[in-house]
Each structure stands twice: as structure tokens, then as C-alpha cells.
Amino acid sequence: MFFVFLLLPFFYAFYLSFFKITDFSNIFGGLEFVGFKNYLYVFKDKEFIYSILLSLKYALLMIPLNIILSIILAMALKEDIKLNRVYRTLFFMPFVLDTFVVGVVWTILYAGRYGFLVQLLKPIIPESLYNTGFLGNASTAMPAVVLAVALKNVGFGTILYTASLNNISADIEDAAKIDGARGFKKFFSITFPLVKNTTTFLVITGVIGAFSAFSEFFAMTGGGPIVEKWGEPLGATKVAGYYLYNHITNLRLGIASATSFVLLVLTLVISIIYSRATRE
Description:
It is built from 14 helices and 4 strands. It is mainly alpha-helical. It folds into 2 domains: 1-35, no CATH class; 46-100 and 140-279, MetI-like fold, CATH 1.10.3720.10.
């Protein structure tokens, strides 16, 4: 199963990244060797460079928000409150839902004129935003998607942080209290450093998720709205995963394969740099 569905496609995609398909009725035989042309095309394409920047922006917004919300909820659930397990289950439930379905629900909430949120915020938002909705405005589309995804995934981070917090020895907390550590001082000096491994895990998985993100943008924005960048019309939320999807649907499979391996290398490099930086 591993060989057929993971290992074989991985190596075939790498092989395909050096070829151009000339006969789509025979994708294993109708190939033309082009060397590194697919990779050169990707690196020279302004749309790809812009999609990488958008993916980085998505990661820089989504990962900190997810971590902050997760650790706040985890610290609240660490307290001995009634229905603690029920709350944990309720917070975790959105995480198991399909991303596309969650995106469709939020699309309805963010919709212009008749959407719930624009109706709720009508007195304080500009008329242009009221008409377009949060997803139709270039300045709010990305933050809107980030909020939706962070709220969907927060249950996963909450469970991890709850487990990490419960593993902190009571003796350490008692010693911190004796030394006068309270509130934020205790959190940043004792609690947060002791859950560093969980934070590192969430950052790395967040980076992977950001560079492979597609379903949420497909459901909520379609890669839009269109903005003028570098003299070209580009999608304000057309992240790297969406860029890859467009090449696949247009049957440019060699370029799509090259793109996927460039994204893989970028993800690995960022993850390794962060892991080493936090280890020191």
C-alpha cells in the first residue's frame, strides 16, 4: 500500500518534473525530455513568486493566531471546571470537519450585503466592504480565510497544549510561586518554555499546511480577488497550492510536478531552520 500510493507516485512525480507530456493518452510513454526547463519556468514565473509570498503571509498570520488561541484555551481547560471533557470535545469537533465544507459555511457568513457578519458590522464597516463582503475585498480576504482556518484548527492545538501543560511538574510551579513568579511573568518564564516542543510541532505542521493550502481558498475566494501586482493581474489569495492546482487542471503536469518539489524543498528548509533555531 505504501509503495503503490505513496512511494511510487513520489518518484514518478520527480521523474515527470523533467519531462513534458506530448500524448495525454499515454502519459507513461508520450513524454519529451526537457531537463530543467520546468524548474526554470517555475522560478521565472512572477505568479509563482507571488504565490510563495502569499503562502508565507498566510503562514505568518495563521500560525501565531492558532498558537495563541490554542494555548489560551488549553490554560483555561487546565483548570478544574465542570464539563471539562465536554468543552474539549466541542473545541476539537471543527478540526475533524472537511476544510472545504467549513470554507463554504464561512463563505456564507462573510458574504456581502446579506452575509451575517456584514449585517452585524454594518454600522462600523465601509460601504464598499459591505457590498463586496470580506472575501471580495483584497485587503480583508486573506485575514478572513486565516480566521476561519485558525478557528477550525484550534481544537487540535488545544488538545496538544493541554497534554503538555498537564505534564508540567507541580513542583516547578510551586517553586515559581515561591520565587514570586505570577501571571505573565510565570507564563513567559516557566510555562511557555516548557511547552516549547508542542509549539515547534505546531509551527512546522503550520508551515507544511500553509504551503499545501488549497481547499480553504478554493471554497472561499477562488484565488481572488484580482489585484494589480508587478504590472500583472494576480489573485490576492492565489497561494502556492492554488498555483499548483491550476497547472494540474491545465494538464501541465511537468510544471506541476516541478512546482510540488520546489514547495517541498522550501517547506523542509523553513522547518529545519526553525527547529535548529529553537533547539539552541
